[in-house]
Specification:
With about 300 residues, this protein is α/β, with parallel strands linked by helices.
């Protein structure tokens, strides 16, 4: 126990830059804190901290030891949090980010029942169409449509697959005609998503046929809802994931265009920090989202 207290004291001194502040943080006297630090250095046989009348700083050995000690203490706290999480109700602030469309269609409808089940979780929803750094921005759960994360500290869990489709309002088709082949898009008004991998190219496939159609959009936006509303108003043919316009297709507000051709599909994933033990608040939200998708059989509807 004394060794653990010595390590806690040393980390506190390194982080706070003061023995007195570290002592206050650990609720011990300054003299006791000094004794712990001296005992640690004597036990290791190396000076960890240099003190002058004006300031305190770590030696080279102290810097290396501090890094290791931080890792040990973080692992210990994570283990304690895991035990606490399994023994108590999920609590705390849950930061969730997704595109505006996904937030409107799948996160917002989930929240009333989720809040009834877990009233001690405060949910913060961040609607953003660009991917923010999960760890740097303190995000717990992110909904992505990319297959991999550059950061190995991020775990990916598949949620569903969706087609990307072309669709337009019946009024637009009545006025401008229905495209029969991909090259016909050249004479149509296209409403396109600006953040796509290659926004000015549509790699379409039908069986063994492959055609890359270049487009000059009438309207380009970084948000699918803007494109959806433009399409509903008869402005042109949109290019969007089917999950965004599925209800409009079912209701007949939009009709599929070139539906026998396929664009590369998107996989909707849940991304979260890789941890030995997931916080309870994260786990229950992921479970609720997965259950919503399973219950409504979204993937089958979106790839049909």
């Amino acid at each position: 126990m004394n060794q653990l207290r010595e390590i806690e004291l040393f980390v506190g001194v390194a982080d706070l830059g003061s023995i007195s502040k570290a002592a206050e943080h650990l609720e011990i006297s300054i003299s006791a804190a000094s004794r712990h630090l001296i005992a640690l250095e004597e036990r290791l046989g190396v000076q960890l901290v240099k003190r002058t009348t004006r300031r305190l700083y770590l030696t080279e050995a102290g810097v290396k030891f501090h890094q290791q000690c931080k890792t040990i203490l973080d692992s210990l706290r994570e283990a304690e949090n895991m035990v606490t999480a399994t023994a108590t109700k999920p609590t705390g602030t849950l930061r969730v980010t997704a595109s505006l469309s996904f937030c409107l269609l799948h996160i917002a409808p989930l929240l009333p029942e989720f809040n009834r089940q877990y009233p001690d979780i405060q949910v913060e929803v961040i609607a953003a169409n660009r991917y923010c750094d999960i760890i740097e921005n303190g995000v717990d759960i992110a909904i992505r449509t990319r297959q991999v994360e550059a950061d190995s500290n991020i775990t990916i869990r598949r949620l569903a697959e969706t087609r990307r489709i072309l669709a337009a309002a019946p009024g637009y088709i009545e006025q401008h005609g229905m495209p029969i082949l991909p090259p016909d898009l050249h004479r149509h008004k296209v409403l396109n998503y600006a953040l796509a991998a290659s926004p000015r190219e549509l790699p379409l496939k039908r069986g063994n046929e492959k055609i890359v159609t270049k487009i000059r959009p009438l309207l380009e936006s970084n948000d699918g809802q803007i494109l959806r509303h433009a399409a509903l108003a008869g402005m042109g043919i949109l290019v969007q994931p089917k999950y965004i316009v599925y209800d409009d297709l079912v209701a007949g507000r939009l009709v599929p265009v070139l539906d026998d051709w396929d664009l590369p599909r998107l996989t909707i994933n849940i991304a979260f920090q890789t941890r030995a033990h997931m916080p309870a608040k994260d786990r229950v939200f992921i479970d609720a989202l997965v259950e919503r998708f399973r219950k409504n059989d979204y993937e089958r509807l979106w790839i049909a």
